[in-house]
Amino acid sequence: MEVIIKKTYEEMSKAAAQEVARLLNTKPNAVLGMATGSTPLGLYQELVRLHRNEGLDFSQVTTFNLDEYVGLLPDHPQSYHYFMHENFFKHINIPKQNIYIPSGNTSNYQAFCSWYEARIEECGGIDLQILGIGSDGHVAFNEPGSSLTSRTRLKTLAKQTIDDNARFFDKAEDVPIYAITMGVGTILEARQLLLLANGENKAWATAAAVEGPVTGMVTASALQMHPLSTVFLDDSAAGQLKMREYYDWIEEHRPGAPQL
Ligand code: PGA
Fold first, then answer.
1. Is 132 in the pocket of ligand 1 (CB under 6 A)?
2. 208-242 pLDDT, tens per residue?
3. What is the DSSP-derived secondary structure letter of residue 131?
4. How many domains is the chain partitioned into structurally?
5. Does 121 map to a domain?
């Protein structure tokens, strides 16, 4: 696991966007795993800027989103369908038919989840998965206690997640209780993982994920088992890392590192 700490949210977002751009420049038909929430907004803004100003091309890209609330229609302002369209997809040149987001409105969730998993596989698997982290240490909606081999499924949200996300709704009671989410096992099959975290309220979860034991109680800790994962942090999210000096030293000396 590589840990990259930047002073600000903007710098963190730009560094993560460079990683995505690097992939698209070498593999224009890459499959990207997308995340929602406030964390990746800066990354999406930077990708949109790279598209507009530097011709970053999404015409052959396919995307799979991590999760969706159950019960919200795609045009609901708090649905992740709406979020992705407004904050990213409508600003780039990705073909509509290449966009996959879990349905929060299906009559058969089990069948939908199996189809979603199969679709990921048919598209060749996810090349790069973008991830945020919940203040309870979740990735996607894999709440504490989730199996580290879980697949896409219906999940009940933890109280802490409902409280955290209440800021986007008029009142806490409006936050959906269920979501469809990729599983930890699904996420671990992506060829590369980028986890982003900013703000002091993520410092505990970040430290637990990066330096704590691998546990289903902090599902982001499963990234420790992935061969190619990078954690991008801003200064305040990195506030509780014990090995902070080590990560900073690596970042500082990178240009002088031996070329193997
Ligand atoms: P946030 O959510 O980016 O809105 O903080 C992250 C998450 O819950 O995964």
1. yes
2. 999 999 999 999 999 999 999 999 999 999 999 99
3. E
4. 1
5. yes
Count CB-CB contacts under 10 A for residue 198. 25
> Where do the H-state alpha helices sit in the chain?
9-26, 41-54, 80-87, 109-122, 159-165, 184-188, 203-211, 244-253
Which CATH number do you get for residue 69? 3.40.50.1360
Measured from the CA of 138, which atom of ligand 1 is nearest?
A: 9
- Residue 234 falls in the annotated catalytic set: no
pLDDT digits (tens, 9 = 90+) for 11-43: 999 999 999 999 999 999 999 999 999 999 999
- Ligand 1 centre distance from Cα of residue 212 (Å): 20
DSSP tag of 94: -
**46, 136, 164, 234: which is the annotated catalytic residue?**
136
Residue 260 belongs to some domain of the structure:
no
* Phi, psi of 7, rounded to the nearest 5 degrees: -65, -40
Q: Is residue 139 part of a domain?
A: yes
> What does the pLDDT read at residue 257?
72
pLDDT tens per residue, range 111-162? 999 999 999 999 999 999 999 999 999 999 999 999 999 999 999 999 999 9
Evaluate: CB of 133 within 6 angstroms of ligand 1.
yes
| Containing structural domain, residue 151 | 2-255
Is 143 labeled as catalytic in the residue annotation?
Answer: yes
Instruction: Work out which ligand 1 atom sits closest to the CA atom of 161.
Output: 8
Tell me if 35 is assigned to some domain.
Answer: yes
Active site residue 67: yes
Q: Is 200 a catalytic residue?
A: no
